[in-house]
Design brief:
The chain has about 450 residues and is α+β, with helices and mostly antiparallel strands. The chain contains seven helices and 23 strands.
């Protein structure tokens, strides 16, 4: 592209590729969550929701054929098919811009120009990484909830037995996979949930007008069941409410809810091993030989203080893990510290803030990139420089204001993240499989290390 419309001080930087390199340096400093995603190009337009379909396998045959039935054209066989399940991916546009006034920045125009590109790159990287994180923990708008979905607690004690309870978070209860399709919960497609100690059939979900959820990205609301009334003993504040198809959430010492976490409930190696066991039970493939565990540094510190961990590394004070303060790979898990792990203020002041790690296998997240990003149908019009870096468009526009002083430096990305389900990988296909829709990740909730919980 021609760069003659840009000042001479900037043309050299552009010609030598400094601009793209500054943007890319920021963009490739990934924080971790986005790297888990399987990427695919999508040709649909902005704001559209794409429905993806997965097929299941067929149940293994363990009974011999009856020789007496081996007749006619079908040889006594009845045709069977495989099931399907769907997940949705919504494409939206994200971006930001910054201006460079060439007159007021005259003394250091080139360095300011490159600094803007670098800052835009970091912002784009953090934005996409946070979108990936939010999809993992909170779920896509049209999906079945994220890996925190379907696992909450009663927020207000029932005054008398009834059909409706208030809960801290309705994510994961709003939709069900019915006949292979993601369908809003309703009387024709109910969901089995456990409230307290008993099972009920959920038929309606409603969000509160004022959100009071304590969970990161949570949505407080009410759940309505059909059939038997909810007993007061079950509908008591603090009791667990868990969907029969909820993802696995692990807490130290078997705590039933987030609010039940107590002092000393820090991350331990046994919690990580339990997450690995859950993934292996579902035959979730590893990522280059190990599962990825994203966690913050206080959870990692709790792991180093865990008695089982210290026993495992007894006498290994010279190991790389202890010298660097990081666990690279251990027991089939690759630990990846991140500052983007969801944080939650203390529910119980005596316990402290809640921290969340997530252990993921291959295929847990899909990133859809709009194939038309960076495309222009007006050939020959050269009013901007455009660089495509890792699916993100970096746009540098020449000064078009009346005084020809202001250069605009922008970035944008068109895409979305989705969580594919594995409902059809049930116990008839994989005998050890769980009932969860989302099987490729496990959340571990814990407290931070004593004295360092803030």
């Amino acid at each position: 592209m021609s760069i003659t419309n840009f000042p001479l001080q900037l043309q050299a930087a552009i010609q030598q590729g400094y601009l793209a390199r500054e943007f890319q340096d920021g963009l490739t400093s990934k924080l971790g969550f986005r790297q888990i995603a399987d990427r695919e190009n999508v040709s649909a337009g902005i704001g559209e929701t794409i429905t993806k379909t997965r097929k299941s396998l067929k149940t293994p045959v363990t009974e011999p054929l009856n020789p007496a039935s081996n007749t006619n054209f079908d040889n006594g066989l009845t045709a069977t098919g495989w099931g399907v399940e769907q997940y949705t991916l919504t494409l939206n546009q994200y971006g930001d811009t910054t201006d460079l006034n060439m007159v007021t920045s005259l003394a250091g125009i080139a360095s300011q120009f490159l600094a803007n590109a670098h800052t835009n790159g970091i912002q784009a990287m953090q934005s996409l990484d946070r979108l990936a994180r939010n999809a993992l923990f909170g779920g896509a708008m049209n999906g079945v909830g994220g890996y925190l979905g379907g696992n909450t607690r009663v927020s207000t004690t029932l005054g008398a037995a009834g059909t409706t309870i208030s809960v801290d978070d309705i994510r994961g209860f709003q939709r069900i996979i019915y006949n292979g399709q993601v369908t809003p919960i309703g009387s024709g497609s109910g969901m089995t949930i456990t409230i307290g100690a008993n099972a009920y059939t959920l038929v309606s979900v409603s969000a509160d007008a004022t959100n009071t959820s304590t969970a990161p990205g949570g949505i407080s609301g009410t759940l309505t069941v059909s059939g038997n009334n909810i007993a007061v003993a079950d509908g008591t504040a603090g009791n667990a409410v868990v969907s029969s198809v909820a993802p696995n959430v692990i807490r130290p010492n078997g705590r039933p809810t987030t609010a039940a976490l107590a002092a000393g409930d820090t991350l331990g190696i046994q919690n990580v091993l339990a997450a690995v066991a859950a993934l292996r039970r579902n035959n979730v493939p590893a990522i280059n030989g190990a599962y990825n565990c994203y966690l913050d540094d206080l959870q990692l510190l709790g792991l180093f203080r865990d008695a089982d961990f210290k026993y495992l590394y007894r006498g290994a004070y010279g190991s790389e893990e202890y010298r660097s303060g990081q666990v690279i790979e251990l027991l089939g898990v690759r630990f990846i510290p991140t500052t983007e792990a969801p944080q939650q203020a203390a529910i119980n002041a005596a316990a402290g803030p809640i921290h969340r790690a997530i252990v993921l296998g291959q295929g847990a997240l899909v990133e859809g990139n709009f194939a038309g990003t960076g495309y222009s149908d007006i050939p020959g019009v050269d009013t901007a420089l455009l660089e495509m870096i890792d699916g993100v468009a970096m746009v540098t526009r020449e000064p078009l204001d009346r005084l020809r002083q202001i250069i605009a430096q922008s970035w944008y990305w068109i895409g979305g993240f989705a969580l594919p389900t594995d409902m059809t990988a049930n116990a008839s296909i994989i005998p050890t499989a769980t009932n969860s829709y989302l099987k490729r990740g496990v959340v571990i909730e814990s407290l931070g290390t004593d004295g360092l919980t803030a």
